[in-house]
Amino acid sequence: MNIEIKKSIKPIKYEDAIKFLEERLSEIDSGRKGDLIWILEHEEVYSAGTSYKEKEILNRDINLIKTNRGGKITYHGPGQLICYFVIDLKKRKKDIRKFITLIEKTIIVSLSKFNVESFGDPKNIGIWTKHNDTINKVAAIGVRVRKWIAYHGFAININNDLSKYKNIIPCGILDKGVINLKKIKDQDYKNLDKIIIDTFSKHLEI
Fold first, then answer.
1. Of 85, 108, 151, 157, which sits 20 to 30 A from 42 (CA to CA)?
2. What whole-number distance in Å separates Cα of residue 197 and Cα of residue 188?
3. Tens of pLDDT, residues 185-204
4. CA separation for the pair 47, 64 (Å, rounded)
5. Per-residue model confidence as pLDDT tens digits over 122-179
6. Can you tell me the distance from the alpha carbon of 43 to that of 149, in angstroms, rounded to the nearest whole number?
7. Residue 126 burial (CB < 10 Å; 0-12/13-18/19+)?
8. Contact present, 163 and 93 (Cβ < 8 Å)
């Protein structure tokens, strides 16, 4: 299947990105355009998914945008790889659970190329890693499905400012932390975006 790959060099405003995804969904639904994978970085922002709770906001001064994706509150900013997508599940057996598993597998396989071990958790969506005997989230996943078209995406922490997570209860989880790849293993991750695109595209073809 033909998937358009889009990569943005400059940081994209969260609202602009979501508007673009919504428009692309309509274009796919009407048959005018095909699937999309979009790699970008966001300007600093906190986003709240449909299942967030007010008590998960610890600092009322933060810029919080409520969105229609699944999940709770998370942070986006410089040093984070965002992978958005608009994928037609009507061409892929309409299996949402399988699609989420495919995303998890994409991230786990991609990180393994850098010798970073990670894993999914059936109870807590996202990708996790064990570091210094604690379990920490290294990638957040938030997906919405409309008209059997999946959109929004996932975010991988590379070298973002982890102190920003102190303003919220990340993804509503109290007993686990948040980490980035540089803290796990200080190495060059410049090819991660290419590996993510290649791996995701390959898994979508299966």
1. 108
2. 18
3. 999 998 999 999 999 999 99
4. 6
5. 888 899 999 988 999 999 999 999 999 999 999 999 999 999 999 998 877 776 889 9
6. 26
7. buried
8. no
Report the candidate in 178, 177, 168 with the shortest Cα–Cα distance to residue 60: 168
Element spanning 177, H or E: strand 177-178
Active-site residue flag, 83: no
Residue 200 CA to its chain's centroid (Å): 12
What angle do the packed helices 96-112 and 192-205 form, to 10 degrees?
A: 140
CATH 3.40.50.1100 applies to domain 3-205: no
**87 conformational bin, left if phi > 0, alpha if psi -120 to 50, beta if neither:** beta
Residue 196 exposure: Cα atoms within 13 Å on the Cβ side: 26
- pTM of the predicted model as reported, rounded to 2 decimal places: 0.95
- φ, ψ for residue 156 (rounded to 5)? -110, 125
Nearest residue to 88 (alpha-carbon basis) of 35, 12, 164, 143: 35
Side-chain-facing half-sphere of 119: CA atoms under 13 Å? 7
Name the active-site residue from 37, 171, 192, 197: 171
